[in-house]
Write a structure and sequence with these properties.
Elements: H1 3-15, E1 20-30, E2 39-43, E3 48-50, H2 55-71, E4 75-81, H3 86-89, E5 95-104, H4 108-122, E6 128-135, E7 141-149, E8 152-156, H5 161-169, E9 178-182, E10 185-191, E11 197-201, H6 205-216, E12 220-225, E13 241-244, E14 261-265, H7 270-280, E15 287-290, H8 294-306, H9 311-315, H10 330-347
Amino acid sequence: MSLSMRHKEILACLEEKAGFAVATVMKSSGSTPRTSGTRMLVRQDGSIIGTIGGGQIEARVIKACLELTEQKTSRIQRFILNAEHKDDLDMICGGDMTVMMESIHYSPSLYKLFEHLLQQVSKGEQPLLVSRVIGNTQTDFTLKKSVCIHGKVAAGDPLPESLLSVLRSRRFSGRVPLIHNQGLEEFVIEPVVKRDTLFIFGAGHVGFKLAQMAHLVEFNTVVTDDRKEFANPERFPDSDTIRVVDHFSQSFDGLSIDPSSYIVILTRGHLHDQTVLEKALATTPAYIGMIGSRTKRDAIYANLMEKGVSKQRLDAVYSPIGLDIHSETPAEIAVSIIGQIIQVRAETGNQTGRTQISP
């Protein structure tokens, strides 16, 4: 789960000024239903945002979160998913899952802290959300939060200099909260990374369906086209950014492409696809995919190699795009594309990117 997504939702829940809880899978082993770092928000009415796997285990976590919200405390609990307990847990997989369940209640300072956190992420920073444990993680506890950037407190409560020194000298990465002992105190340290972004070039039928699916699997989506009647907020209500360019030669102007970026090329013509692909190959995303037949691909590749693009760079492009599931309709093609992107991300543990396509 890319972290900024859940934190946006935490901020939205804080705006409602009602207590809620966040359940985070801190550690998992074996065939548990969700991986470490997965989050679920639990409101006071029992409704949820996200999932940690469903079934009875999720029901038990929801029940515990509701109790903790009322008590205004937090808890770390281990769930054992083995043959002895699987019937009771309504699970068919084995393994262990450790879940941190944190109750969160509105205060002006806490709201400002999460607002500041997201502002820093939007600026390209990689802050740490550091929470001082009040109590003991072996029992119920509460947390006091701070945002740290480059080993300095940017928002929230002061932290001991000894801890800040550790944060400066040691790289905390990934997407899973860690328990850190500093002297006699415990802290929860949570790296905050930017949510993966899917850049869709082409707002036609396939791009329309792909944007919907990308939103469901929690990508930021940026849609670019040269037709405003196709690329507009009414047509793409769940996309984060809609861009209309005069020509696809301008399609990368102002964009920030990094290893958490995925590029899909779906324009309405071969020449536009070639223009976008040439621009894309000058960046370092986790994935570049281009729609079209092998004949079309080979023609575009030949043109680009004549312009000096290496075969090695072109071989890194996914084209024809998507998993081979015999897809035909725009929705089916979009399923094959998002499935391939999910596969690439999973195979590389990509919340940071696959082996990047280097210029």
